[in-house]
From TrEMBL:
Protein name: Pentatricopeptide repeat-containing protein
Per-repeat ranges for PPR: 54-88, 89-123
Record organism: Hibiscus syriacus
UniProt keyword terms in alphabetical order: Repeat
GO MF term (any one): RNA binding
Pfam families with a match to the protein in the record: E_motif (PF20431), PPR (PF01535), PPR_2 (PF13041)
Length: 290
C-alpha cells in the first residue's frame, strides 16, 4: 500500500532537482504511482521521460496496467515495446500474462504463452501458474489441469491452489478432489485449501464429506485464519480483524459498519458466503458458519 501524498512530494523534489533524467529514478516514480493506484500518473511519467527507457521501465509500466486490470493497454504497450526493438524477458511475459489474467483475455494469454520461446525466454512456474489461474477462472478446468501436468518443472502449490479455487467457483467436485489430493501430497497445511474443498462439497450438500474435511483440519491442527482489513485515517494505518474490539473506537466502527450494511442491503447486495467454513452439527447438516 503506497503513500500517495508523500510520494507526490518526493516526485516534486525530483523534478525540481532535475533528477528525472535518471532512468532508475523514473522507474521508481512510475512504480510508486502504480502502487498507489494512480496508473494515469504513472503513465504520464512513462510518456514524458527525459531519458531513454530501459527494459525495467517497460516491465514496470506493463505491470502497472496489469494491477489496474487493464489488459488491453498492457498488450498494446507490449506490442509497442517489441516494435521499438526492446527484447522482452521473463518478467515482461509474467507481467503481460498477469494483465491478461486480470482482464480475462484467454486467447491473448495463450498466444503470448506459446511465443515465449521466440525471444529465448524459458517459461517458469509463475508463467504456468498465471495461465492456470486464467484458464480456471474461464471455466476451462480440464485445460488448466492438463497445463499443470504438462509443466517441464514440478508444479508449485499455487498452481494447484488456483485450480482448487476455480473448482470452488464452478462446483467441480472431481477436479477439486484431484487438486486437494495433490496439495496434501505436497505437504500443504493452508486452511484455505480445506475451506475451498469443504465448500465444493457443501455446494452439492455432501455434508458427510464437509464433516470429514473439518475433522481432517482438526487432526492436522489447521485453524482458519481470521480475515482482516487495512484502512488509512489521518495518516495512520489501522488493521482490523474480524470481530476485532482492540481499537479504542470499535463501537463507533461497528455502528458505521451496520449503517453501511443496511444501506447496501437496500440496494440489493447479497453477502458472498462461499469462502466461509461450514460447521457440522450432530444431524449432519450445517449449523453455523464461521
Amino acid at each position: 500500500m503506497g503513500d500517495f501524498k508523500e510520494g507526490e512530494k518526493i516526485h516534486g523534489f525530483i523534478r525540481n532537482q532535475k533528477l528525472d533524467s535518471n532512468v532508475q529514478v523514473c522507474n521508481a516514480v512510475i512504480d510508486m504511482y502504480a502502487n498507489c493506484g494512480f496508473v494515469d500518473k504513472a503513465c504520464g511519467v512513462f510518456d514524458n521521460m527525459g531519458c531513454m527507457k530501459c527494459l525495467v521501465t517497460w516491465n514496470t509500466m506493463i505491470m502497472a496496467f496489469a494491477r489496474d486490470g487493464d489488459g488491453h493497454k498492457a498488450l498494446k504497450l507490449f506490442e509497442q515495446m517489441e516494435k521499438d526493438g526492446v527484447q522482452p524477458d521473463a518478467v515482461t511475459y509474467l507481467a503481460v500474462l498477469c494483465a491478461c489474467n486480470h482482464a480475462g483475455l484467454v486467447e491473448d494469454a495463450l498466444r503470448l504463452f506459446h511465443t515465449i520461446g521466440k525471444h529465448g525466454v524459458k517459461p517458469n512456474v509463475k508463467h504456468y501458474g498465471s495461465l492456470v489461474d486464467l484458464l480456471g477462472r474461464a471455466e476451462s478446468l480440464k485445460e488448466a489441469y492438463n497445463l499443470i501436468n504438462s509443466m517441464s518443472m514440478v508444479p508449485d502449490l499455487v498452481s494447484w491452489q488456483s485450480l482448487l479455487g476455480a473448482c470452488r467457483i464452478y462446483k467441480d467436485v472431481e477436479m477439486a478432489e484431484i487438486a486437494s489430493r495433490n496439495l496434501v501430497e505436497m505437504g500443504s497445511n493452508n486452511c484455505r485449501d480445506f475451506v475451498l474443498l469443504s465448500n465444493v462439497y457443501a455446494a452439492h450438500e455432501r455434508w458427510n464429506d464437509v464433516g470429514r474435511v473439518r475433522d481432517s483440519m482438526k487432526n492436522r491442527d489447521v485453524k482458519k485464519v481470521p480475515g482482516f482489513s487495512y484502512i488509512e485515517a489521518d495518516g495512520l494505518m489501522h488493521k482490523f480483524f474480524t470481530c476485532d474490539k482492540s481499537n479504542a473506537r470499535w463501537k463507533e466502527t461497528y455502528l458505521k459498519l451496520d449503517e453501511i450494511r443496511f444501506k447496501i442491503k437496500e440496494l440489493g447486495y447479497v453477502a458472498e458466503t462461499s469462502f466461509v467454513l461450514h460447521d457440522i452439527g450432530g444431524g449432519g447438516e450445517p449449523t453455523v458458519l464461521s
